[in-house]
Write a structure and sequence with these properties.
By secondary structure, the chain is of the alpha/beta class. The protein has four helices and six strands; from the N terminus they run E-H-E-H-E-H-E-H-E-E. Helix content is 40%, strand content 23%. The chain is globular, with a radius of gyration of 13 Å.
Length: 123
Amino acid sequence: MKLLVDEALQDAVAHRLTTAGHDTTHVRILGLAGQTDDEVMALAISDNRVLVTTDTDFGTILALTGAAAPSVLLLRGIGDSVDERVDALLDVLPRVEYELSEGAVVVIEPDRYRMRYLPIDDA
């Protein structure tokens, strides 16, 4: 799976996901640290990458705009350590890979994960 790790997460998260076999990069590596959420999302879309973040703004933007991409993996309530974050991601990724490839927001919490398909339509 192709992943783009947001600057809200450590560079080491991206490195560990790469080591685990995912095509992963980090916004800092790409020179996008400090860029707007829209710019980060545009890169994820253009590179066909799933955005990995702790920033709830990305889900909000997708809901407000009705956009169908990019897919987002959102960590909520997971510890701050690289090990905790990578373990949570590697546990859930195999279960949601297809949905992410089709367009989804997956919220990973300590004891569960939740998923919404894109585009989000609350009407």
